[in-house]
Write a structure and sequence with these properties.
CATH topology: L-arginine/glycine Amidinotransferase, Chain A
Number of strands: 15
Largest sheet: 3 strands, mixed
CATH superfamily: L-arginine/glycine Amidinotransferase, Chain A
Strand order of the largest sheet: 2-1-15
Distance between the termini: 34 Å
CATH architecture: 5-stranded Propeller
Number of domains: 1
CATH class: Alpha Beta
Oligomer: single chain
Helix content: 25-40%
Order of helices and strands: EHHEEEHEEEHEEEHHEHEEHEHE
Structural class: alpha/beta
Length: about 325
């Protein structure tokens, strides 16, 4: 078995990627696909070519930042498979590696789970955990090594017909906590920010990047209380909030590798704040993937995520 000492991300080449047509009963899986499907229909081949170029640029940026990339073979019937963040969550703790398999609200994506499981079974000895309640991978469950917590999104009503407003059931959070031994902080997401990683990012130095209206008021208060107040962190220095336009460009959908932040959008004032806080910011054009409701974090899955017991802020 290969030993991976670098951050290792699972990615899927976009050879079969496209913006799916509306579901016969549930409509679009998220609001961004409404315009995205029209863009795709105008020039499918050009769309796919640009998507391939953008995906390769992301892969290159990850490697340059110090990551290892593993690629799963794309299935022609699964256009969303490129968003590898969603079918699973993995965490390793004291030599024990567990992978929680997703239970998708939008059932057309469920076949991705078996393909992911089959792939991961050949990369690291791990225990697989299946769920009975809806839960959607690292897209809705962000491990925060600074605090040793999972920040997990949910919506009160899950199901394909409600996929655009949220995907995960809060009842699954107990199963996630039991499987990993890590405390789960439940956050209610708000339309159109259907996964928590579209409005929240936990940065390596303990800073939090957030679009407040992507969460319920109670959830945003929880972020401030559990993420900042509990550690004596000043919101003026450790909470970076973004505007509606920035959030719509998936500014919060970030992948961090040490102190490098790879992002699909970052306005100049925010970029300066992040750089002043000690981060190196890399901005990539991922417009073809935003058309289907995905960004940097959505396109990657840390399949050997190491647990930091107690967190680096302790």
């Amino acid at each position: 078995m290969t030993s991976f000492t670098k951050p290792t991300f699972l990615m899927c080449p976009p050879v079969h990627y496209r913006v799916p047509e509306p579901h016969p009963e549930g409509g679009y899986a998220n609001e961004m696909q409404v315009e995205g499907f029209q863009i795709f229909q105008k020039d499918p081949e050009g769309f796919k070519e640009r998507a391939q170029e953008q995906w390769l640029a992301l892969r290159t940026a990850l490697v340059q930042a110090g990551a290892e990339i593993l690629e799963i073979q794309a299935h022609p019937d699964l256009p969303d498979q490129v968003f590898t963040a969603d079918p699973s969550i993995s965490l390793q703790d004291k030599g024990y590696l567990v992978t929680i398999l997703s239970h998708f609200s939008n059932a057309e994506r469920q076949p991705e789970v078996e393909l992911t499981q089959n792939f991961l079974s050949h990369h690291g000895e791990r225990t697989f955990v299946e769920l009975s309640h809806h839960l959607e991978g690292t897209g809705d469950n962000i491990y925060d090594p600074a605090r040793d917590l999972f920040w997990s999104g949910y919506t009160p009503e899950t199901g394909r017909e409600n996929a655009a407003q949220g995907r995960s059931n809060i009842l699954a959070h107990k199963d996630l906590q039991k499987a990993t031994g890590v405390e789960v902080i439940s956050l209610e997401v708000q339309t159109p920010f259907f996964h928590v990683d579209t409005s929240l990012a936990l940065l390596p130095k303990g800073h939090i990047l957030c679009y407040p209206d992507g969460l319920s008021q109670k959830a945003f208060n929880t972020v401030k209380k559990r993420g900042l107040e509990a550690y004596g962190l000043d919101p003026q220095t450790h909470l970076f909030t973004v505007s509606k336009d920035e959030a719509a460009a998936y500014t919060c959908n970030v992948r961090a590798i040490e102190n490098t932040l790879i992002m699909s959008a970052c306005e100049a004032p925010l970029r300066k704040k992040l750089e002043d806080a000690g981060y190196h910011v890399v901005i990539l054009d991922l417009s073809m993937f935003l058309a289907s409701g995905g960004g940097v974090h959505c396109l990657t899955n840390h399949i050997f995520e190491p647990r930091i017991e107690g967190g680096t802020l302790s």
